[in-house]
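so i finally got all the pieces together for this one. its two components total, 654 residues if u count the protein bits. some of the lines might not be protein, just check the labels. i wanna see the whole assembly predicted at once instead of chain by chain like last time, that was a mess tbh
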Amino acid sequence: MKAIKLSVPIFFILFSSVFLIASFNLPKASLGNPDAPIYFPAGLSIIMLIFSIIYLFQELKKLDKENKYIKQMLSGRTPKLIGFTILLGVIYAFVFDRIGFLYSTILYLGGLLFYINGIKKWLVNIIVTIAFSFLSWYAFSVLLGVSLP
Amino acid sequence: MDGSSFMEGLFISLEPMNILWIIIGGFLGTIVGMLPGLGPATAVAVLIPVTFGMEPVSAIILMAAIYYGAMYGGSRSSILINTPGDGSAIAATFDGYPMAQKGQAGEALAISAVASFIGGLIAVVGFIFLAEPLANFALEFGPAEYFLLMLLTLSAIVALSIGKMVKGFLAMMLGLTLSTIGIDTQTGVYRFTMGIPHLSEGIDFLIVIIGVYAIGEVLYNLLTIDQEKKEKKKVGKVWFTKEQWKRSKWPILRSGPIGFLIGVLPGAGGSIASMISYTTEKQISKKPEEFGEGAPEGLAAPESANNAASVGAMIPLLTMGIPGSGTTAVMLGALIMLGLRPGPLLFEQQPETAWALVNSMFIGNIALIIINILLVGLLVKILDTPAKVLYPIIVLLAFIGTYTLSYSTIDFFLLLIFGFFGLFLKVMDFPLAPLVLALIVGGEMEQNFRKALLSSDGSLDIFFSSGVSIVLVILTVVSLLYPLIFKFFKRRNLANKTDKISKSS
């Protein structure tokens, strides 16, 4: 839990530091003030860095205090649920163009429903998957004119 | 108010297709708003793709209908299963749920729908009178005033996240820095694109919005999905008694204007409006002990206020082009995508669009009260549909929506990254509205800042050169000090109380 608690302030510190360095390495403008594109992002990065450090200290102060959401995120089947939803999303992104909207959506929605809703409710899962996949294809492709693969 | 533009707007909003969009939007918004944990921002974000290819005027009408549909929907789940759709529906659980427990679910739903309806109507009337003068006033604004107004909006939204201001600032700074990615429009310099052509036009804020509000919220709700409440409610006749109406009518009429004015303020919104109206009614009530036990006025007041606030929140969006809340920020994002730039010029150049929206709000509120009273049986059935089925559908809608933005599956990865990031921010108790708001207004904020400095040869005096800018600076400072003042008075109150206790003992 402590690692997750600290990961967010550390992310902000790293992000603002990288952004600050990158701001000063921006190319100069050939029009007007050559440093004009740098001021705003550099200023923001400095303020963000200051707040990130304050935030780090705030988190360090209450490091031992329990965060029920982190606990929920790490307990039971929740990490698997979150991981599976994201993993399936990545697979969906890879196959979307290759096998087309309808097949990939049936696979994606079906997979997600079977995993989240459980195998016992297979009939509901199948009906919802097929009905919703066709309905969304019809709504977007035919009614809204979105060109789907 | 220009009567002919008003009438033209009325005719546009009465076009059969637009009435259909109002009904569809209101219904879909009600459904998403009813889902526990999902509020109007998610409802609008998920349903953005539906607006593509539409006329901008129909799109804004549809989005507004989704917005207040979600406000109506949020309280359905508060009353029936004690689970608010979002912050602004929390107050509806205080007395709405106890009423349902006492077997008065039908009465509670009817009071809430009627209160929302009247609150909405009061706010629309307020909108008609306030919008145009405000737009005319905003026409006088130069880049310095615009920059300061955006700064005020952002600082107000951060300051209102009391107890987590540092996190609010970080979320806001993150949004602002992300907005600097892409080609700098004033000099043509590529900033932070890392050589990726996809980033040259910047990070598409709609992907961030859909990622954070749709994927992030669903992932967040997965944390508790196995503890889903299985509470079935029997809803009898959906109407209230004369006694209940007698107790509710004045609270409804008082809370409408309060909610509307709070909604207009930057940063404030439905949650604050409903809480303030609830506490006000409790304080002036002759039966304060009944609050929390199922007092009809305890439900009517916040319901009227939060719906009025949702209408009020659209004023800064339409008249100044500056959203004051997460949901209106999402709407602004979608409107920019459609080529419609809300702001003071909207009332001058496209008055019919602005007035069509205002008129559509009247029709929308009528449609929603019908949906929420006549179709209550259907809504209760939808509420019985397990979240385990509905959440995967929302995730899928988020993917389809993202695809319609650029027809590229590369954005799916960005969507997942921002969704996962949104989950982390929620888990660590970060407010999301400052991030989204900053990302959307960030680009213009920087351009206005630089334009102001260019006109003054780099002197910061430009930010104190007019009455308006000085007032904006003062308001920004006050809004930032507000949490400190709040803390000070809280401590003083506490100290007074302990003093009294120690003296009496």
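The radius of gyration of chain B is 23 Å.
Residues 12 and 356 of chain B are 6 Å apart (CA to CA).
anyway lmk what u think
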